[in-house]
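STRUCTURE REQUEST FORM
Protein name: ABC transporter
Source organism: Enterococcus ureilyticus
Requested output: structure tokens
Priority: standard
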Amino acid sequence: MDITLKKLRYAYPTGDDILKGIDLSISGTEPVAIIGQNGAGKTTIVKHFNGILRPKSGEVLIEGESIEQKTTAQWAKKVGYVFQNPDDQLFLESVRKEFTFGPKQIGMPQQEIEERLNWVAELVGLSDELEVHPFDLNATEKKFCTIGSIIMMNTSIVIFDEPTCGQDVNGNLRLRRIIQKLRDKGVLCIAISHDMKFVADNFERIIVLCQGEIILDGSADEVFSEVATLNKSFVTPPPITRVGQGAGFKKTVFTTEAFMKVFEEERR
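Status: completed
Returned output:
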């Protein structure tokens, strides 16, 4: 899967440019996180990946095809988008119906729907809630219901908008398993997140936006070592990383185990 942005600009009705000529290429299946302050343009940029938004100027290409060539409904077969607020996405009477609605709309064979239903329900932890009304689920379960409904579509790309909102530790671990399983199946996962620990733990590439421009793009080690640049977008590294940086570590650490290992190495 390949996404290419060429000189992408976008402006809301106020007239101010939200995205300011972005050039970007995302390919393969390595998970990608997009981070930055509120208003940096994170949600705006990913909404161009399936045609929810259209460029003011520049190009958005999905596997070499311009986003302008298809409707958002048509792009939904390739690009799945999980909204930040589950209530914006859920509208049917049961989890089962939420899961099967999209595949039916795109003509997925019934046998494939049933096979995917069992796999997806187990993956998102809702196998026992298929007959439950989505609005009777708790906040965490609602989130996984929306995630499941998108995974059911068997898209090549899945976009998660703030997936950790309202999640506890177990929810974050479930999200981690979902991202790993999707990557193993050749699906490109892209997430917008303010949770830097979640980002560092799960994403091999991190893109930092600031006022509609990309200011950093690299691995977690590379991005979170650039503290001064991150400050421009009001992003701070994960807590354990900040402690290591404050202690003067030469290596960037993201776990307690890594912290202790570097601590011992630098004492010698």
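Reviewer notes: Strands lie at 2-11, 17-27, 32-35, 57-62, 65-66, 79-82, 157-161, 188-192, 205-210, 213-218. Residues 232 and 248 are 21 Å apart (CA to CA).
Form closed.
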